[in-house]
Amino acid sequence: MVNYQENQKDISLKIKKARRLVILSCEIVVLNLLSILPVTAATEEPVLSVVYGQENANQWKGISDRLQTIGVKYCVISLNDVKNGADWGDRRVLFLPNVETLTPTQAIALEEWMSKGGRLIASGPVGSLSSPGVRQLLRSLLGGYWGFSLNGTEQIQAAKTKIPEWANQTGLFGKVRGGVVIPNNMSAESPAVWNSKDNPAAVVTTERSTFLGWRWGTDTASAAELDNAWLKTTLNRYLTALAPSNRAKKIAGGSQSCSTTVAAVPSAQGGRGAGGQGSRGVEGQRGSSSLSSPGKTATGPIPRPLPMVKPPSSQEAIDQLEQAVRLDVAPNSNEPIDNNQAIALQQELENLIGRVESAHLAVLADAANVGETISGEKQFSGHLNTPQSVKEKPIQLASTKLGALAISKDQALAQARLIAKNLPQLIAQKNYALARQQWLLAKTTLWQQFPVDRKLAQPEIRAVWLDRGTIVRAGSKAGLAQIFDRLAQAGINTVFFETVNAGYTIYPSQVAKEQNPLIRGWNPLEEAVKLAHERDMELHAWVWTFAAGNQRHNEILNLNPNYPGPVLAAHPDWANYDNLGNMIPVGQGKPFFDPANPEVRQYLLKLYEEIVTKYNVDGLQLDYIRYPFQDPSAGRTYGYGKAARAQFQKLTGVDPVNISPSQADLWRKWTKFRTEQVDSFVAQVSQQLRQKQPNLILSVAVFPLPELERIQKIQQNWETWARQGDVDLIVPMTYALDTSRFQRLAQPWIASKQLGATLLVPGIRLLSLPTIGAFDQLQLVRDLPVSGYALFAAENFSNDLQKIFSSTQGRIQSTTSEPIPHRQPFQTAAIRYTALQREWKFVFQNDQRQRPSQKISDFNNQAEVLRSALNQLAASPSTSKLLVARASLTRFQSQFRVLMSQEIKSNSYQVKVWENRLVTIERLLHYGERRVQLRPL
Q: DSSP states of 699-722 as a string?
């Protein structure tokens, strides 16, 4: 027993010693991070990587001196060496000081690196000289963007809403020369603001990034003590937020190479010192200089002339289309603004003012209808007073969630109107930089005024593409159910479910060669149909039509990049080729079927028939219903499959391989031949599948190029499909990174008279699109004469977006479900018209101006006649009721501008919105006539 007790005492003593040793080690690590111990006392590996590039080379001495003072060991990454995610290194935190140009490849690699747990600190106008797509991606990663530079030195101070982990630190606040950082998503916070008008953000931080609004490491911008305080605090935040066991963990897959060689950094005159030559050594390797200079840790490589990297043009044709209509506003650029640009800037600002007001009117009218008043909403269009007879309830604006500029809606609108009014004068005075800065300020402030916590949407098509990658990651019915729960809560009512991709089916097929190898042991399509219907959602099978494979998918499956997909591998005669004999066109990544091949057509028809008969899908969407992109003027053409060549030669006596665009008549025939292959297949799919499933909704995902250009480049003539009634929904991929571009892409097709009774549903791409930017595009859709939208894709459907959608368009508990326009067009028309009447009633009741009572009475009487006709048609559709409804609508539309003469003067945008919504009702009646089985009487 004595020996036992002695042993226990000995063990206890050892444990105590070990504990003290562990505590001492932890204290050394923490104290070293806080620069309390000299750097020579630290023995741990670097936890920080610092990026060196051409743009911060002249600032590197100041940057490295500050880093040396802080005493944290770090690796140096040469920006020129970054080609993929691994090149950003395996250290937990990355510092990007004052780097204004990143290539698309580097930005995508950064996103990949951060998705694995990396934390980013950036300073200065990061990425501001990069391409638009890169800037948008950086906004998402950083939670904000550099808005504009301040004219002089300003005081940085703590934000009113103090964040404890920042506010309690010393040395963070002082005089700095920098710029305004605009928060970009709802998780972004501003721990520090500028002591200037409206207190704009000086620092924006999120869980995974911090953005400092000045050029860190430069004496002209800030004092070294302030720079050091911010970097230490930020590093401490990201490292101590981790569990102690995880702080030393590195980023999986990151390069282990770490340049820790001490190199003398050139002076401002560009002199060189001895040391490293810019290559990153093996991790842990030390050069002799590090022994002779123990006070230093790592510096950048010796600056040398770096080549200017021109961002590669996107290989994705949809990106090239978006670039063609770009409206970029660089905040500090003093480049001349021509007359057309000036008009575009002013018009976009006025349109944004209109969209903000339109959204608020929808909220106010709906609230008044249920006996609720929104507090803080004092005016509409400068003439409306909020009714005081009902209970007030505060509204949450986007700015409340973003935690950014504290400014009321009325102040924001007044400020934006003044800026829009003054823009021509600033441009006439050639004050281009200030004009751009003012424009961006107005846009940002207006974006933050959107109401984001009240229902404002009417019945509409709310579709989302549910992509293969998201389905694969779901992994099971339970995982898929979580996705459908989120979408249903957000008010999504139509899901385009990726069913055929790169030649693989997502389900076990009796027709297709192979189910997607990434799906194991379950049938996603079968489960998705059940999950959608249980939540009152429609599920449409989304299929790749003529695209037969995908090189990117081959990488995921570890296959040969040139593998053409399982179907073409089994049937090489079904393949299509370009004029050089390539199955995959140069610069593109997908082989295509030959649409002229009867066996291809029969295979696809049999496959689609299996989908719509075996599974209870509500619709089928044809994607890649075209040829690959071509440029005949550059000698790049496509369509020379075995069957196509034989058929065309039989028709004309000429092998199409032997003709060129210079042979006008033959080339016209060749283009028409290929276009007709696609046209006839769409018609065949429509006829054959509707015989099997009469209620099937057929949609097509298409390019919004001008018709003649589209036929020359991809042989896609979707106006013909619409006019002939072969399809129900045209879904143009009107993808753009801002609302003005989106409108310029979508507007020609929304206004088109060439679509017959087919409904048009614009597509919105969520990738790199700010949350409020997406909301703004949706508001534009609601203000235009269309019946809904489609979001690409579920993979990019963020939590922030889901929260806003749940509030503004989500499900309301009721006994009846909301109609979907393509399924119940007459009911949709009636409900949407009732919402219009609520808005008119709200305006008339709360307008301070006096109107003749007789005029209001006449308006209400005509409006009631139309309401009655639409309700009767919705309740019991018949040919006679449709005729009455149409006649009532036409009569009302013809008088609408007369009845709204006063509103046109004060708010022409809103009157146009109302006219657009009447056109939407007109189109729903036209569509319903074709889709709904009408009784003769």
A: EEEE--S-HHHHHHHH---HHHHH
CA–CA distance, 198 with 408 (Å, rounded to integer): 11
Q: What residues contact residue 607 under an 8 Å CB cut-off, 6+ apart?
A: 500, 505, 509, 511, 512, 543
Q: Are 505 and 475 in contact (CB under 8 A)?
A: no
Task: Please state, as a whole number, how many other Cβ atoms lie within 10 Å of the Cβ of residue 48.
Answer: 25
Is 97:50 a contact under the CB 8 Å cutoff?
yes
Stated pTM of the model: 0.69
Chain segment 787-813, per-residue pLDDT in tens = 999 999 999 999 999 999 999 998 765
From the list 529, 685, 711, 528, the residue with the least C-alpha distance to 621 is 685
Nearest CA among 327, 328, 258 for reference residue 297: 258
- Mean of the per-residue pLDDT values of the chain: 83
* CA 146 – CA 519 distance, rounded (Å): 43
User: 284: left (phi > 0), else alpha (psi -120 to 50), else beta?
Assistant: left
Check if the beta carbon of residue 518 is closer than 8 Å to that of residue 472.
yes
CA geometry: angle at 55 spanning 224 and 222, to 5°?
A: 20
Q: What are phi and psi of 191, to 5 degrees?
A: -75, -20
In whole angstroms, give the CA distance from residue 576 to residue 596: 9
**174: which DSSP letter?**
S
**Cβ neighbours around 42 below 10 Å, total:** 18
Q: What is the pLDDT of residues 199-234, one digit of tens each?
A: 888 999 988 999 999 999 998 889 999 999 999 999
Top-confidence residue, 730 or 16:
730
Distance CA 653, CA 121 (A): 66
Q: How many CB atoms lie within 10 A of CB 869?
A: 22
Q: What's the per-residue H, E or C state across 483-548?
A: HHHHHHHCCCCEEEEEEEECCEECCCCCCCCCECCCCCCCCHHHHHHHHHHHCCCEEEEEEECCEC
Distance CA 456, CA 367 (A): 10
